[in-house]
């Protein structure tokens, strides 16, 4: 995995949410959470595994909605942030945080209804192997996102601390075919790159987001979206 040492640093974990999901980044957080909920609903009583759960943004949200959730991450520092977040929440479901390797998931076959992986595949050195392992422990559904090759993200990708793996639509389609997954739905979003939203106040980011959504919803501009959300089912 790219950037493992950077990602596991204590100071990165402590500042992760503030740097990415404060100011205009709140719009990113809101959209990503809605994408996950739209794909999984109804959430209540579902057995869900989140790969690379980080600080628990999605795991806590899903547990609040009544799911039985396990969050797995390689970073002990990130997991501690997630546990702190969970302690502050009034959870209707159950939530467990585990440290582990996404390439060797410590669960039996078909153990979960749904497996999700957000902000993960851009770091994956062998996405097919990871997707196969996710499929092994899922009985129904896999939800994940990818950063897109033909997008504004490609302009500044070289400047990121660990870089990113960028995907074309055809590459993702090939991955799904190789791992026997059926595409249920794919949503494209964010013509304007994440970095801009994170660097400006929410009040300024909101009108930009409104314009971004209006323009990005057209068939032609969809091809240049920064991110795609993939909802897949097992064949």
Write up what this structure looks like.
The chain is α/β, with parallel strands linked by helices and 235 residues long. It has a single domain, classed as Vaccinia Virus protein VP39 (Rossmann fold, 3-Layer(aba) Sandwich), CATH 3.40.50.150. Helix content is 44%, strand content 23%. It is built from 11 helices and 8 strands. The protein has helices at residues 4-8, 10-21, 25-40, 57-64, 76-88, 127-137, 153-156, 169-178, 194-199, 202-216, 219-222, and strands spanning 47-51, 68-73, 94-99, 112-117, 138-148, 166-167, 181-189, 227-234. Strands 1, 2, 3, 4, 5, 6, 7 and 8 form an 8-stranded mixed sheet that branches. Strand 1, helix 4 (57-64) and strand 2 (68-73) form a beta-alpha-beta unit. Helix 3 (25-40) packs across helix 4 (57-64). It is globular. The model has no long low-confidence stretch (mean pLDDT 88).
In short, what is this structure?
With about 240 residues, the chain is of the alpha/beta class.
Mean pLDDT: 88
The tally of strands reads 8
Distance between the termini: 28 Å
Q: Decide which structural class fits the backbone.
A: alpha/beta
- Shape category: globular
Helix content: 40-55%
Number of domains: 1
Q: Number of helical segments?
A: 11
CATH level 1 name: Alpha Beta
- H and E string: HHHEHEHEEHEHEHEHHHE
**Largest sheet descriptor:** 8 strands, mixed
- Name given to the CATH homologous superfamily: Vaccinia Virus protein VP39
Could you list the spans in which at least 5 consecutive residues all have pLDDT below 50? none
Under CATH, the topology is which?
Rossmann fold
Spatial extent as radius of gyration: 17 Å
Strand percentage = 15-25%
CATH architecture term: 3-Layer(aba) Sandwich
